[in-house]
Amino acid sequence: MLIDVGNLRVLSSTHVPIGVYLSKITINGQLVWWSLKPQLKQLLITQPVAISGALLLIEIITPILSKLSLQEDVEDGIASMTRWLNSMKGYMEDQSSGVERGKWLENKVEQVRDIAYDIEDVLDEFVLHSPPYMFHNRQFIRQIHTVAHTVYHGFPIRGISEKIARIKTSIDDMGSQHAFLSTGLSSLGPSSSSTNRIRPHPPVSPLLLDDEIVGYEKEKKIFTDQLVDGEKRLVTLAVAGPAGSGKTAFVKNIFCKRGIMGRFDCHAWVNVSQHFEAEELFVNMLKQFCYSRKESYPIDDGTNTQTKLHKYLTGKRFIVVLDDIWSQNHWDVIKGGFPDAIRGSRIIVTTRLSNVASVCASSIRHVRILSCLEWLQALTLFYRKAFPDNDGQCPPDLKGCSERIVKRCEGLPLAIVAVGGALAHKRKLPSVWEKFHDSLGCEIASDPNLSAISNALLLGYMDLSTNLKSCFLYFSIFPEDYSVERGRLIRLWVAEQFAVGIGMQTAEEVAEGYLDELIQRNLVHVSNYDFDGKPRNCRVLNPVLNFVTHKCKYENFASNFPTENTSRNQRIRRLSVRNDCTHLPQNIDLRGVRSMFLLSLIATSTSNIEKVLRELKFTRVLDFQGAPITKFPKDITTHLTLLRHLNFRGTKIKSIPSSIKKLSYLETLDLKQTDVRELPKEICHLHNLRHLLAYKHNVESYVVFDSVQGVKLHKGIRKLTELQALSLVKVGKKVKILEELKLLTKLKKLGLTGIRRGYGNELSASIEHMSDLATLDLCSDTEEEFLELGDMRNPPLKLQRLYLKGRLNQLPTWISSLDNLLRIGLKWSKMQYSPLQALQRLPHLIELELVDSYIGGELIFEASSFKKLKILLIEDFAELHTIVIRNGAMPDLKRISLHKCPMVTISPLGMNNLAKVEELILRDMAQEFIARLRMNGEDRAMVARIPLINSFTSGHQHSWSFENLSDSSSH
User: Fold this and answer.
1) Terminal CA-to-CA distance of the chain, rounded, Å?
2) What is the DSSP string of 599-647?
3) Neighbour count for residue 152 (Cβ, 10 Å)
4) How confident is the model over 429-448, as pLDDT tens digits?
5) How confident is the model at residue 153 (pLDDT cuts 50, 70, 90)?
6) What is the rounded CA–CA span in Å between residue 785 and residue 808?
7) Which of 167, 662, 777, 818 falls between 20 and 30 A from 616, CA-CA?
């Protein structure tokens, strides 16, 4: 962004030499502009949320204002507001440190925040009334004179002048800034700034690793024995203890072991939560049971879900975890879904309440009580988390302080892990740790059972940078037990401007780093990991959510409807509509809302939605994911022109209006799993668009060729040069679209379907321009049409995921050069020659999916091939009869799936050489093949060491029969 020399007085209050943060720009030797250096941008974005938002907007509009010959009081007012914001930011940072403060100071902090919001509103109103291209750097100098004239005569200058005057009055009413600051800051002492802390980035690991579970050894042994003791009746085991005692961790590290899960026909894990809906819980449970057996959800037979669940589980040996049950009434409702058969099934319940545990458990001997860790166990756990690079050994000069910190954690594992994780990133100096210990004083939550956890979490929270705090608090928007997809979370943080690009890093990469750090600090829990070890879904555990929600209310960061009382005068910035609402908020002021989420809206009318949208003005994020809407609300493009993030995923909308072009600031448009099949040509006016996601999966038993549907686009896509993700575009006859793609050089994800034969040269030429491409998904127009990829001299070497769907004469030679490739899927290729030769030396390949990709009879995995491969799928090979695995091939393989290979009648030769395989999944394989793998079968010795072996055979109406071939006696 450029700043006119005449406006340097706006920044003069920082008392820093201007050359430190600004670079000169000259035209014909004359100094005309100053450009912000990254240091100043970083300074601005690391301030408290309300203040930094206003400062960022001032940075954006200052160059425009300088050209408009505005009234003197307007210019002076903006300069005054800038000085005030800069002087307040340090004070607000100190106030966010969590130390005790009196009511007077709390009132002052609230006034500061409200004034910052007023300033942000005025500046956003200026942006709202200005042509969007005024804020595009590339067009700025060329168009400034004509734009200035338009804005000067079109913008309500009188209105902004009056609002600025009112803001100045509010500042004056607070009294002298000097007196205010000196009174406030003197009572606080030094700031706990984290600017200079060391932040190593070791690989992110799951929160609940087995080697991190300390203590409870006796309880663990008894619990495990009761799970596998051979008792045939249905047994319920209960684990009870206070919040943060490690109940979930205790159960998860036993439940997830292959030797446990392999003993049961199906399994599920559900979070019950305090306010659960029985129908939703039964649906979730039944889906998990079906998924664990690779079966489809039962068809609708007119019965309720509880009856379906009971019927499905009848005759099966199942295991299920009911995590966090709150009352006996909850248990009475849930237990009716389980058949009491003599199959050796197990139910595991976790609860904070001992009396509930006694009611749920089959007997008192089936109750395990986890209280607090003993002193030495608590120290051991803390040392592991705080000193991971020193083998969990505490330096002598930190032992005293460490012991005092652990004592304040009161033996609760969650508290210990959170504090230890925070301290792991700090310098190992006694003075630093003493300061860390001394700042733990403030009680946050009103529930005394949660106070110890809240104190520990507050300590980790205080040590976060401003943007990390905002990212952490963002989880309060989502309900209990709600797991958020990683990509969605990152796109939201970018839209909120918590993360901005730094140097060569994009804003999305910065946001992903923020998420990784929150996970490393064990403040955010990973619900599921992707195949490459990256988090797929994240959430905060429920005790942590209590803390986050309390902080959000205190900081006025976000409001939840209808769980919180909201008044007409409340300054709502982010609004989450949840808890199964049937209507949207009424009689509250929505004019200042910047983000709105409709997370659990059961049903509402279009008019109700549009009525709310008409009240919004400055909204940047609108998330309709899963909402019951069937039509694009027209008021979005009429009133919400500042929108950056628009999410319709999982809704029933069928079209996007041409007025979408008005959303010129839009960065994300998510239309996944909607019925939109074509986008209007006006989509090409969205020059700031970074993520365009529009496709729908329709999968029943197997993925077939037309399971995924893309959308049609018109020409002009070359204008969307900021795009990072584009998927899936249906090409069809529009070969010109492939030629236009070469201008989208920032793409990291590209998905194309409907590619016709003869398009290879255009396609390859465009892909060669995408040096940052990480995911490439290409599909031919029909299953029998050849997918031509051409000969690429400069393929995208950063490619990690490659999916080729359609006929191939042979595998392109350039694939062998993709050293960063992690996953490859070859589907319906029908090649005459085995693709293994070209793929076997890829150094980092983790997952290989082969579906109808080879018409030969023999697949040979050579010695020392596929050294990093962990997941292998071979499906729909009609002529394949022999699989050979040479000694030394696939040494790290964890899971093998063999589907629909009818000619394979013997176990893969050399299967016994795969020492690390944990799971063998078979679907629709020959009965002779299955028979040889059963107990006492001819090939049983080849698979005897594999803990989990499941076989599925398809039947009528997408039903499946299941056979558990695991050797449970070997575990």
Assistant:
1) 64
2) SSB----HHHHHHHHHH-SS--EEE-TT-S--S--THHHHH-TT--EEE
3) 13
4) 999 888 888 765 333 344 44
5) very low
6) 9
7) 167
